[in-house]
Amino acid sequence: MHEFSVCQALMEQVTVIADQHPGGRIVGIHLYNGPLSGVDSTLLQHAFEFSKKETLFADCLLSIENHPLRVHCRNCLNDREIAVNDWTCPVCASLDTEVIGGEELILAQVQLDVP
Ligand SMILES: [Zn+2]
Asked: What percent of the chain has pLDDT above 70?
């Protein structure tokens, strides 16, 4: 389950940010996760809950917002959200589409409780 290594990398990244605010307690992390990022939100949430015990993250809430998959249609030039595994353009039914969103895993926000 590679979500554990993703979780580890996330914690390292957030620790670097927290280190810039001495005494700050990490209380919240917000992520955006696209369907093509290769990371399962539920598994990542589990990995986090498991890993955070007795660490700087013990009181931290992880929230993950699932981002939609978006394509740009080269035929009608519209940008639309689509379902995973259906690459046809919802406007003109063309298959000539390219992914413009949904591959991302983004650390959107870190909340620190600074005394
Ligand atoms: Zn189209």
From this structure: 99
Instruction: Mark the residues whose beta carbon lies below 5 A from ion ligand 1.
Output: 73, 75-76, 89, 91-92, 94
Report yes or no on 17 lying in a domain: yes
CA 8 and chain centroid, separation: 14
The answer on pLDDT for 52 being more than 80 is yes
Report which of 43, 6, 11, 33 is spatially closest to residue 110, judged by C-alpha positions: 11
CA distance 37 to 90: 22
Instruction: Supply the range of the domain harboring residue 59.
Output: 3-68+101-113
Instruction: Give the CATH number, domain containing residue 27.
Output: 3.30.2320.50
Does any domain span residue 84?
no
* pTM exceeding 0.85: yes
Centroid of ligand 1 to alpha carbon of 75 (angstroms): 5
Mean pLDDT of the chain: 95
Ligand 1 center to residue 33 CA distance, Å? 25
